[in-house]
Amino acid sequence: MLLASATTLPLLLAATGCRSSEAFAGPDPLAGPPSPSPDVITLEAVIAAETNLIRLYKMATSGVSRATAPLLSQHEQHLAQLSARLVLPSGTSSPPGQGGRGGQGGLEGRGAPPGSGGSRGVVPPGLAELRSAERESATSLVRQLGTAEPALAQLFASIAACHATHVAALSG
Amino acid sequence: MGAAPGALSALQAVLAAEDAAIFGYGVAGAHLAGSRLTAAEQDWTGHNRARDALAGLISRLGAVPVAAQAFYRLPFGVHDAASAAALAAYLEDGVTRAYLGLVAVSDPSLRGYGALAMQGSAERAAFWRGSTEAFPGLPASALLPARPAGQSGLPAVQGHDPGGQLKQPAVATRNGRPAGARPAGRPRSGRPAPKWPGAS
Q1: Alpha-carbon gap: A24 to the closest alpha carbon of chain B (Å)
Q2: How many CB atoms lie within 10 A of CB B35?
Q3: Where are the domains of chain B?
Q4: Reported CATH class of domain B5-139+168-178
Q5: Among B100, B148, B189, beta carbon nearest to A167
Q6: Is B4 on the interface with A (CB under 8 A)?
Q7: What pTM value is reported for the model?
Q8: Which of A7, A161, B140, B194 could hold B122 in an S-S bridge, CB 3.0 to 4.6 Å?
């Protein structure tokens, strides 16, 4: 009974020219799916960028990867913290960094596809490229925290500071 | 010129942290030599400049900058180069926490300033500590377990560091400290110092 009412009432309201939003304070069932908040969009972009940094580290040459293993571990901690703050409804599109809305930091599409562990014809990144990617990411994070919710802004700022320390570490 | 809500107290907290760092570097420098002494002197100078700029900004906002304390109690004994370096890292952690408080204010320009400034203090902390940290400035209580069921939202870092970080236990920002990632030498990012909001 409740189900029938929920599905038929909006149709009746539409037929009589009455918008359901005028009758209910809740979401408009005739409208499309709600658009994500700006914080969600920003968070998805940051997750995508962090995912790409991790991919880049995993592609790094073997001589570099040993030295950068602690940095990679910190990026994985960043991704875990960022991902813990984004709960996607079931049935939504692919997670950020794997074809979602996100994508910044100038690393999209670089090198091998996710999880491939490198492929023929792809030049593994060296220290200079990792350094450049870290710097770009730190800059981008600071740019995006201006309008974010305060606690999220602080997380972005902390991660950006970590990326800045990585730039210095990779310069040593 | 008006201040955004909470901005003034955050700025005062940063100023207090800078004052504490200035005092602490004076202690640390007495136990350092060579390139490490040079680095400490550079950092001491940088903190003095930041202190002056902060005091000017607070005055322009119509408030009186908090005064430095005459003496700060050290968190541990400083008697050699190793403990002097540990003190420097501790000081920079305190400064980083204070700038992180600035990132939570509503004024976007102050947020940006705080975020850029804490990159500098995090770099200096990594230099003195000899390793990088995953979440500079964030207390462990601000971090969530990965993918908690039914939980979202990040607990904001409440309040601002009062600047008396020399009196506080050295516990705050040891999150996920790696075994390696030691910055060799004294690499600098080359990033220009962030410009103060409203500065000419």
Answers
A1: 27
A2: 10
A3: 5-139+168-178
A4: mainly alpha
A5: B189
A6: no
A7: 0.76
A8: A161
- Give the three-class secondary structure for B178: coil
Distance, CA of B165 to CA of A63 (rounded, Å): 40
Q: Which two tokens stand for residue A114?
A: 């996710």
As a whole number of angstroms, the distance between CA A108 and CA A49 comes to 8
CA distance B99 to B115: 7
B103 Cβ under 8 Å from any chain A Cβ: yes
Instruction: Tell me if B115 and A151 make a contact (CB, 8 A cut-off).
Output: no
CB A164 within 8 A of CB A131: no
Alpha-carbon gap, residue A167 to A124, rounded angstroms: 18
Long-range residue pairs from B63-66, CB within 8 A, at least 24 positions apart, any chain: B63/B3, B63/B8, B63/B12, B65/B12, B65/B15, B66/B12, B66/B15, B66/B16, B66/B19, B66/B163
DSSP state of B140: G
Q: Do B115 and A142 touch (CB under 8 A)?
A: yes
Would you write out chain A's pLDDT as a tens digit for each of its 172 residues? 344 444 444 544 455 555 544 556 776 777 777 778 888 999 999 999 999 999 999 998 777 877 899 999 999 999 999 999 987 766 665 555 544 444 333 333 333 334 344 445 667 888 999 999 999 999 999 999 998 999 999 999 999 999 999 999 999 7
CB-neighbour burial class of residue B116 (10 A; exposed 0-12, middle 13-18, buried 19+)? buried
Cβ separation of B176 and A142 shorter than 8 Å?
Answer: no
Using CA atoms in the order A25, A30, A32, A33, what is the torsion angle rounded to 10 degrees? 50
Tell whether ipTM is more than 0.95: no
The owner of tokens 């500071």 is A161
* DSSP state at residue B121: H
